[in-house]
Amino acid sequence: MDLQNGIVSRFAQSDEVLAPFPKAVAAARQAKMPVIYVRVAFREGYPEVSARNKSFAAIAGRGGMTEGDAATQIHASVAPRQDEPIVTKRRVSAFAGSDLDVILRARRIDTLVLCGIATSGVVLSTVREAADMDFGLIVLSDACLDADPEVHRVLVEMVFPRQADVLCVDEWIATLT
């Protein structure tokens, strides 16, 4: 989730920190699990951005992050295949303003394996909403990044385990065999 150029460039200062993401994608593909990408992007003119939304109003004010903008395209390290959907959301949660739920229900998916940037943003919001929707949840702790390492630690060690199984990518891959 949100592994898009404009976000990766702000959070991932080295290829090393990105390594768990393509590893997880490759393992999911090998296990024949659907891979669904989620990105945040806005229409030209930002009709979906309220002036009361501090984060998104700031983006609208400075420009960028529109659907066709390079910043909203999925990062090359996890490039989607042609048959892998890219869901565009309009808020922080992967479900808010997107058709993710429609895709999941159509495929009868009841368990989600989540990773993304930022742990305190899209991952937290999506864990909370998906748990309320009764999905089974796995969070890949080393395939989540946050600007604040302590916030990341608290979320993956203390908050997420209340609603999800928290595993590193290698631990999760071991469950697939």
TrEMBL record:
GO MF annotation list: hydrolase activity
Name of the protein this chain belongs to: Isochorismatase
Organism: Ferroacidibacillus organovorans
Pfam family, one: Isochorismatase
Keyword check for Nucleotide-binding: no
InterPro entries per the UniProt record, alphabetical: Isochorismatase-like_dom (IPR000868), Isochorismatase-like_hydrls (IPR050272), Isochorismatase-like_sf (IPR036380)
Domain Isochorismatase-like: 2-170
Family designation: Belongs to the isochorismatase family.
Keywords on record: Hydrolase
CDD domains linked: cysteine_hydrolases
